[in-house]
Amino acid sequence: MATYLELKEQAERLLAQAEEMREQEIAQAIADIKEKMRLYGLTAEDLGLGRAGGGRAPRGKAAAAPIKYRGPNGETWSGGRGRKPQWVTQALQQGRKLEEFAVKGAAR
Fold first, then answer.
1. What is the distance between the alpha carbons of residues 68 and 98, in angstroms, rounded to a whole number?
2. What is the pLDDT of residues 63-94, one digit of tens each?
3. Which of 87, 107, 84 is nearest to 96 (CA)?
4. Bridge partner residues of 77 (DSSP)
5. Residue 57: HSE in the Cβ half-sphere, 13 Å Cα cutoff
6. How many Å apart are CA 2 and CA 68, to the nearest integer?
7. DSSP states of the chain as a string?
8. Is 49 in contact with 55 (CB distance < 8 Å)?
């Protein structure tokens, strides 16, 4: 029969092994999510996660920018500052013009 100390040592090894497995699974989940976000051109805001960069207290919700462009699969973009969405970048690389995606009646 195992002693208390032997069982405690075994439990500690199992906890360490479980934590290692948890970290591996989290890393894989993050990689899967990032890949899907890349494939579909999603942002943290699209997922309802707000602004990335964390730790700051939310200040109040800013008014959403009007949609100026709509992609071939229904994606939207306000044309604001920062990186262009992947669908825009791909369309431009294919020789298409941004004006092709302009939403009619969008405020300019």
1. 10
2. 778 889 988 888 888 888 888 899 999 999 99
3. 87
4. 69
5. 1
6. 70
7. ---HHHHHHHHHHHHHHHHHHHHHHHHHHHHHHHHHHHHHT--TTTTT---SS-SSPP--PPPPPPP-EE-TTS-EE---SSPPPHHHHHHHHTT--GGGGBPTT---
8. no
